[in-house]
Amino acid sequence: MLIFGAAALVFVAIMCVGVLLTTDDKTQHAKKRAKLVGAGETGKSTRVSKADEEANARRRETQRMLAKLRQEDEKRKKMLVPQDIKSKLEQAGVSMSVSTFWIVSAATGIGLAVAAYLSGAQGLPTISGVKLENRAVVVGMAGFAGFLGLPRFVLGFLASSRAKKKTNQFADGLDVIVRGVKSGLPLNECLRIIANESPAPLGPEFEILTDQISMGTNMERALQNLYQRVPLQEINFFVIVLAIQTKAGGNLSEALGNLSAVIRSRRMMREKVSALSSEAKASAMIIGCLPFAVGTMLYVSSPDYIMPLLTTETGHLFILIGACMMTFGILVMRMMINFDM
User: Fold this and answer.
1) How far is CA 183 from CA 60, 187, 188, 194, 253, in A?
2) What are phi and psi of 224, to 5 degrees?
3) pLDDT tens for residues 192-244?
4) pLDDT digit string, tens, across residues 172-192
5) What are the Cα distances from residue 320, in Å, to 50, 124, 137, 326?
6) Could you give the CA distance from residue 297 to residue 286 in angstroms, rounded to a whole number?
7) Is residue 60 assigned to a domain?
8) Which residues constitute the domain of residue 107?
9) Residues 323 and 265 in one domain
10) Same domain (yes/no): 179, 255
11) Domain assignment present for 317
12) Domain count, the chain
């Protein structure tokens, strides 16, 4: 254990030295220059004019207002958008009750636990002199992952896929409203056209919206209910535009036309980012699959060479260290290629 600890310390020291060597003076100078420019200083003169001070004050005030609006929007999202299982099931389009979901989750957990028990996994090694009950630990972890991890992952994947389809259809729905308003149709009739003509999953959501309006719900409340069912940024923009137009008036067709252009631009930017990050994603998948591929080939070609890694406690420790380092690297690469659009 002392040898492994010393090796870990040496590895951390090498990483720190590499970070220090890669951070050169030019980077520090660029950061200092950017900080001075952001504060309104050019570095060429120590005297700041009154106009520069007013511009800096306006810039700071604008940044403060934007930060305040962003915080208020986040609070509104937390208040309006529920995060319970029932809402997740509705967002994913799964016709299942909450009790049925928990029954399926329990069955999945029990199934994975039984599979782990029958597989004869011998689990974790002795760590710091503490001997764990290997099979019980593995079975418990498999049951926990099957009960809380796998069903929620599948539910989140279905919800994100359905939300992506709604986003792709929403710009066309806004164009329908723009053309209908320009031709003289009322807003409610344009929403009804979207509900009748748009395919699923966008059409049924607007059908619920129009039914609520027909039953006497005011426009603002019906739009808030739509955002609760479809918590997308594009729907949030749509709700804000209609709320402002309802209270203050204005050219609705022009506002929705601009919103449609913004949504299409966001989708194009999202696709461009996905294309630019595809190389990094492919590299991450290759790097992630490489250890398993090499281990499988070694097991097939030279089983005696790799069996100590699977049968000894030292080999188990190295597997644990490698898994932790690999997980850390994959998370770092995911953060590098994951952009909030």
Assistant:
1) 44, 11, 14, 15, 10
2) -65, -40
3) 999 998 888 889 999 999 999 989 888 888 988 888 888 888 888 898 888 88
4) 899 999 999 888 888 889 999
5) 62, 9, 15, 10
6) 16
7) no
8) 85-160
9) no
10) yes
11) yes
12) 3
Express each pLDDT in 284-296 by its tens digit: 788 888 888 888 8
Q: For the purposes of burial, counting CB atoms within 10 Å of the CB of 204, is it exposed (0-12), middle (13-18) or buried (19 or more)?
A: middle
CA dihedral (39, 40, 43, 46) positive or negative: negative
Q: How far is Cα 247 from Cα 330, in angstroms, rounded to an integer?
A: 48
Helix orientation angle between 252-276 and 278-301, rounded to the nearest 10 degrees: 30
**CB 221, CB 250: distance < 8 Å:** no
CATH value at residue 227: 1.20.81.30
Cβ atoms of 173 and 245 closer than 8 Å: no
User: How many helices (H) and strands (E) in the chain?
Assistant: 15, 0
93: nearest Cα among 195, 210, 230: 230
- Given the structure tokens 């049951």, which residue do they identify? 143
Task: Please state, as a whole number, how many other Cβ atoms lie within 10 Å of the Cβ of residue 77.
Answer: 13
Domain end point (choices 112, 133, 160): 160
Question: Among 288, 278, 271, 294, which Cα is nearest to 323's?
Answer: 288
Give CA–CA dist 152/92, Å, rounded: 11
- Give the residue from 225, 254, 271 where a domain finishes: 271
173 burial via Cβ count (<10 Å: 0-12, 13-18, 19+)? buried
Average pLDDT over residues 133-143: 74
Q: What is the mean pLDDT of the chain?
A: 78
Per-position DSSP letters for 124-163, written without gaps between them? ---BTTB---HHHHHHHHHHHIIIIIHHHHHHHHHHHHHH
- The two three-digit tokens of residue 284, written as one number: 């991450």
